[in-house]
Amino acid sequence: MREIHTDELKRIQIGILDDVALFCKQHNLRYYLAYGTLLGAVRHKGYIPWDDDIDIHMPRPDYEKFLATYNADGKDNIAVAPELDARYRLPFAKVYRKGTVVKENHFKPDLFGVYIDIFPLDGYADKKQAYECGEMRRYMHVKNSVFLHEMSPIRKLRLAVTKLILLPFNLKGMLARIKTLATKQEFDSSEYVFSSYSRLAVKEVFHHSVFDRYKIVIFEGKEYRAPVDCDSYLKALYGNYMALPPEDKRISTHNSRAWSLEDN
Length: 264
Fold this sequence. Notes:
Number of helices: 7
Helix content: 25-40%
Strand content: 15-25%
Radius of gyration: 18 Å
Number of strands: 12
Structural class: alpha+beta
Oligomer: single chain
C-alpha cells in the first residue's frame, strides 16, 4: 500500500463527484453541493483551502433511487449505506473509490475508502422530529467514537459515561429509528425540509423553495448543481459566510489518513 496525500485525495474525490453528478443527470435525479463544499464553491470557487472533503444533498426520493441503482453499473466507485450493507454504521451514504482505504482516527474502522458524503433531505414535520433526529445522530456518533490519547481526562470520562449509558442501544436499532423519524413527512409535499441525518438537524431546516430548482456553481474549475437559493442556505448555516474566519480557526476538522491498495 502507499499513502494518498491531500492533492491526490482531492483528485479522487472530484472524480467521484463527477461520476455521481453524471449519473444523476443521466437518471434525472436531484443533487446539490452541500455544507463546506457549497461554501467553498461560492467563496473560493473550489475547496475551502483548509478543507479536504466533499458533501452533497439529495432529496429523499432521489436518494433512495440513487442507492437502489448506482452500484449496478460496476463502476470504479461504490455507494455504501445501511440499506446496502448491514455492517455500515452511519445513517447517511458515502460513495467511495474501490482500491482505496481510509482510516478515520476518531472512529471505529469502517467499510470505505476515499469518499464523498451524501446526505438526504427530508420533509419537515415539526421541531420535535428534527430534534429527535439530531439526538439520535449524536448518540450514533458517540457509539462510533474511540478514545484518543490527546483527549483530556474530562473528555474521556464524559465519553466513557455516555457510552455506558448507550450500551443497551444497538446501532441497528438506532439506524432504524432515525430513518423512521426522518421519513415521517414526504419531501416533495412539505413546506419546509431539513437535513435529517445531521447532528444539528434542528438548526438545518430550510424553506422548500431553497431547493425548488438548481443553479450552476463552479468548484475546482467544473460545473455542479447547487440549491437555487444557496444564499439563504449558506446564511442559515454560516451567517456572514463570505467573511473568512480568524486565522486560528482555518484548520481542518477531519482526522484521517488514506491509502491506495496499488503500489503506483
